[in-house]
Design a protein that fits this description.
With 95 residues, the chain is mostly helical. The chain has four helices and two strands. It has a two-stranded parallel ribbon with strand order 1-2. α3 links the parallel β1 and β2.
């Protein structure tokens, strides 16, 4: 949902972060939300998204089934507008 620069910036701070837009993660670019969360679960990664509408039901179904995930971090366009150049830096410092 956010620019690959966010993952790069988090990596520079020592976090193990990837972006679905990273060429090494190519199968995830444009993938269904359930597949993105499945990949995050497999890699034991938290997922950052503002897409609460789609991810919340997927998360609820996992939890109801007794499954788990490493975390979902929900953001908002109001807090981190994707068109604002300052968003990348703000996401990096607050994640």
């Amino acid at each position: 949902m956010y620019a690959p620069a966010v993952a790069v910036g988090l990596g520079a701070l020592g976090h193990d972060a990837v972006s679905v837009h990273d060429p090494r993660e190519a199968p995830l670019a444009g993938a269904r939300d359930a597949d993105v969360l499945a990949a995050a679960r497999l890699d034991k990664r938290a997922l950052v998204t503002e897409n609460v509408r789609d991810f919340r039901p997927i998360e609820s179904a996992l939890l109801a089934d007794g499954s788990h995930h490493a975390g979902l971090i929900y953001t908002t366009h109001r807090q981190f507008p994707r068109g604002d150049p300052a968003t990348t830096g703000r996401l990096i410092t607050r994640t």
